[in-house]
Amino acid sequence: MYPNEPQPYDYGSTPEYSRPRAGATAIVAGLVGLLAAGALAWVVFEWFTAFDEAGTPMPNALWVVVGVRAGLAFLLLGLAVGTLARRVSAAWLLMLVALLTAGTVILEPLVLEVELGGWVQLMFEFEDSFAIAIVLASGLGLLTALLAIVAGATRAPESRTA
Fold it and tell me: Which pick of 9, 47, 111, 150 has the fewest CB atoms within 10 Å?
């Protein structure tokens, strides 16, 4: 019998399946995800230093916003590392968390009960580092989500070891 020919009574062997792996796009998505996590950490740092300098305690709604952003930063960090390892499941989860990150620029004024027009004007004047950090985190979050969609939808070619 030839080696590639199926064996008639080979019941003991199981076929070997390879795990799906994302390609080079996953590496780019992971790197941009790391940048988005860093930008979110910068936003959290800006919130803490703004209230630490003023000496006033943070309102409860602001604690929620800061806590959500810190949690998203940790999730982005972990999932970006998983996507850098080219795991497809990490790429899909990275996409979800990155979309939440991009959505915080819209959801934050709703939680803080700030006028939306004034919030948008504050964000896009780019006069202070706080606004730059929020817009950068949201923009990088959106870019990460788009790259993670591509990384999750495509598979790396199988490596052949002859």
Answer: 9
Tell me the residue type at 112.
Answer: L
Task: Output 15 or 124, whichever has higher pLDDT.
Answer: 124
**Taking the model in full, what pTM does it have?**
0.77
**Cβ–Cβ < 8 Å for 124, 135:** yes
pLDDT value of residue 6: 61
Q: Note every long-range contact of 70-76, with CB atoms under 8 Å and residues 24 or more positions apart, other chains counting.
A: 70/40, 70/41, 70/44, 72/40, 72/97, 72/100, 72/101, 72/104, 73/37, 73/40, 73/41, 73/44, 74/37, 76/33, 76/34, 76/36, 76/37, 76/40, 76/101, 76/141, 76/144
**For the chain, how many residues are written?**
162
Straight-line distance from the first to the last Cα atom of the chain, in angstroms, rounded to the nearest whole number: 21
Q: Tell me which residue of 155, 162, 160 sits closest to 26, measured CA to CA.
A: 155
* 1 three-class SS: coil
User: 76: closest CA among 106, 31, 24, 111?
Assistant: 31
DSSP, collapsed to helix, strand or coil, labels residue 21 as strand
**132 token code pair:** 């730059």
